[in-house]
Design brief:
The chain is mainly alpha-helical. Helices cover 63% and strands 5% of the residues.
Length: 462
């Protein structure tokens, strides 16, 4: 057992920077390099891939930062799935790992890396052998599996580079890049869904871009098309504004320096305490269930539900797939059952986000005990209270537990409402992108402040 643990503690990894704090330009350089590589890999097609209905993976590709049909068809799916599995195992104490110690964190990271490699191989095998990405006639399926495996390992390495040398994390960066691309295409693309140029506009083939559909609808008097295009943009902007506002909400705890009277700081706790991680995990879980439903139907066992033209029409998958209620109302296809399905989807998203918020807090060092230890080690304390880690922990519990619940519920609710409103892109992906970009902006601003202010840089180095 000790030998296995040593293996997990000494797995190959991207070398950490030797300096404690990287300069802004260095972080920006590596983030930009990885982003360019990510987009280039998305243009590299899988050799030997046959004719496949890749449009059925559209929502999955947005959530998982994938480009189906390319070498990175798996996207961040294996990484997120490995994280879900490990959080469930660690959170339920089936696997007992103390993530508050350095060895515990390294051990957890090692297990997560091995688990991610397993899911890269497993998902590559499932996609190819169950008909999701079928090879051409005469091409061995193992050629496709190897390419998917290679792409999955590259994504893992790039995620590690961004986490250690860049801003934010690779998972967040790839999601934001994929969603931003999707929004740009759906708003401004002049091409039709068939790939031909949408100019001049034709009745049988309006352009993909909602802006051009809006103009086309006005010119021809097709107000149904005008309303669909308008509300798609309107709800995209609305969700964006709401997400930015909620992301900026904070609870600030006053702290003082024990040895210096009259001087103190405010310790900020974000309302979205666990940020976008819970909704990433919930969305990835639902996307994986939907994918399994499609694959099982292709295999002749539609136990999770049935699909028609890539869309779920019955069974459990239909209840966890959001409907575009605005489009249903405008086009006259609304049915009462759609309300029940939408409410169930909202409950699943909210409940799942709260559950994963708790697991994330416990496994990522964001719990009150870890926060209290960090505050005490910084020489800070709450004014008017004895300098005792246990007292500080109990006081932080009053804030962290409610923030975990309310933040998780809010992010789940926003994501589900965005999905149901028919925004320009997948609602969950849109919300994630807003939160990722906002957090990235805060990190860049903080880094820039440290680089510009010598006193702040000196304080951080200490």
């Amino acid at each position: 057992m000790k030998g296995i643990k040593n293996i997990f503690l000494n797995l190959p990894e991207v070398t950490k920077p030797t300096q404690k704090k990287l300069a802004f330009n260095e972080k920006f350089k590596w983030t930009l390099i990885i982003l360019i590589i990510f987009f280039v890999l998305g243009l590299v097609p899988l050799y030997g891939l046959g004719s496949n209905a890749l449009n059925r993976f559209e929502i999955l590709s947005i959530i998982l930062g994938a480009e189906f049909g390319s070498i990175i068809s798996l996207g961040i799916g294996p990484l997120v799935t490995a994280s879900i599995v490990l959080q469930l195992l660690v959170g339920s104490k089936i696997i007992n790992i103390d993530t508050k110690t350095d060895d515990g964190k390294r051990f957890f990271t090692g297990i997560q890396k091995i688990t991610a490699v397993f899911f890269v191989i497993f998902e590559a095998f499932i996609f190819v052998m169950m008909g999701g990405l079928s090879p051409e006639l005469g091409i061995s399926p193992f050629i496709l599996i190897f390419q998917l495996f290679l792409g999955g390992i590259l994504i893992m390495m790039m995620d590690e580079v961004v986490s250690k040398w860049g801003f934010s994390s690779g998972i967040s960066l790839f999601i934001a890049a994929g969603v931003s691309k999707s929004i740009f295409v759906r708003l401004l693309s002049p091409f039709t869904t068939g790939g031909s140029l949408g100019f001049p506009f034709r009745n049988d083939a309006p352009s993909v871009g909602r802006l051009w559909e809006f103009i086309y609808g006005l010119s021809t008097g097709d107000f149904q098309l005008v309303l669909l295009a308008f509300f798609a943009v309107f709800f995209t902007v609305m969700i964006f504004v709401m997400a930015v506002y909620i992301q900026s909400m904070r609870v600030e705890i006053p702290l003082s320096f024990g040895m210096v009277r009259g001087h103190g700081i405010r310790w900020p706790l974000a309302f979205m305490y666990t940020s976008n991680i819970p909704v990433i995990l919930v969305a990835a879980l639902l996307a994986n269930i939907t994918l399994w439903g499609q694959l099982l139907q292709n295999w002749g066992f539609p136990i999770l539900g049935t699909f028609s033209q890539g869309q779920p029409v019955s069974g459990f998958v239909a209840w966890i797939t959001p409907r575009n209620l605005i489009s249903d109302f405008i086009q006259g296809t609304f049915q009462p059952i759609h309300i029940a399905q939408s409410l169930f989807f909202v409950l699943v998203m909210v409940g799942g986000a709260i559950l994963f918020s708790f697991f994330w807090v416990q496994t990522s060092g964001m719990d009150s005990k870890s926060q209290a230890k960090q505050i005490m080690s910084s020489g800070l304390q709450i004014p008017g209270f004895r300098k005792d880690e246990r007292i500080l922990e109990s006081l932080l519990d009053r804030y962290i537990t409610p923030l975990t619940i309310m933040g998780g519920a809010t992010v789940g609710l926003l994501a589900s409402l965005a999905d149901l409103s028919g925004a320009l892109t997948n609602g969950t992906g849109l919300l994630l992108t807003v939160m990722i970009i906002y957090k990235l902006y805060e990190e860049i601003a903080q880094q820039h402040m440290m680089d510009m202010n010598p006193l702040m840089r000196k304080f951080v180095k200490q």
